[in-house]
Design a protein that fits this description.
Blueprint lengths: L3 H23 L10 E11 L9 E4 L1 E12 L4 E9 L3 E9 L7 E23 L4 E23 L8 E24 L2 E10 L6 E11 L1
Antiparallel strand pairs: 1-3, 1-10, 2-5, 3-4, 4-6, 5-6, 6-7, 7-8, 8-9, 9-10
């Protein structure tokens, strides 16, 4: 679910874009001999992860993410686009108590934090609706990088039994797919867009909704 912080960020981006639109439209910025565009987007991403089915387990699978991108328009229908995305974290915590060898219960604490980012390269296909609005879709290769930090603590409250306190970190990477659909509005060389994305990894699939701006040189 999109929280109030994400909504405030979206509104801030939209306000800034709207305030800059007249400036960019009036500015005498020379066109590049090689046309290209750059942009950024912010939003909320969520992991395709099972819901919590244990009272002892808490899961936070959505949060803030952002993307940066640049593209080369081949024509008004197709473009080649590259981008970077720093996705939200997946956090899982398990806290349990069970009888031990003393009058105190054994306490178990286990946590896992997964952090993902990656680079994409692919194509963007646009379908103009009017002179200012267009639907579009993207398909890309997504080179993802994942870091997972895990911690396990067990307190037995028994001098004869050693407590457990373990930490482990490892990383993984690979190349999978990235897909997006969206709608954008354009005035002169400035565009505002909203889109839905899917980032695929071997570990989890990550969905995102973001609002952003781009400028064509």
């Amino acid at each position: 679910m999109i929280n109030s912080k994400i909504i405030r960020i979206w509104l801030a981006v939209a306000t800034i874009a709207a305030s800059l639109l007249p400036l960019f439209c009036r500015a005498e910025i020379p066109k590049s001999p090689i046309p290209f565009y750059i942009g950024t987007g912010v939003g909320s991403s969520s992991y395709d992860y099972p819901n919590n089915d244990l009272e002892s387990r808490s899961i936070d699978k959505s949060g803030f993410y952002y993307q940066l991108f640049a593209g080369y328009p081949i024509n008004k229908y197709f473009a080649i686009e590259a981008g970077f995305a720093d996705l939200s974290k997946l956090e899982e915590v398990i806290k349990q108590e069970f009888p031990g060898t003393t009058d105190k219960n054994v306490n178990l604490y286990r946590s896992s934090i997964q952090d993902n980012y990656g680079f994409r390269l692919g194509v963007k296909a646009s379908l103009p609706l009017t002179s200012h609005f267009a639907l579009y879709g993207k398909a890309s290769f997504f080179n993802w990088h994942s870091t997972i930090d895990q911690k396990l603590t067990i307190n037995y409250y028994d001098p004869a039994i050693a407590d457990v306190n373990q930490s482990e970190s490892y990383s993984d990477s690979g190349t999978d797919g990235h897909y997006a659909i969206g709608i954008q509005g354009t005035k002169e060389r400035l565009s505002i867009f909203i889109e839905h994305e899917l980032y695929q990894t071997e570990i989890e699939n990550i969905y995102g909704v973001n609002l952003g701006v781009s400028y064509r040189f």
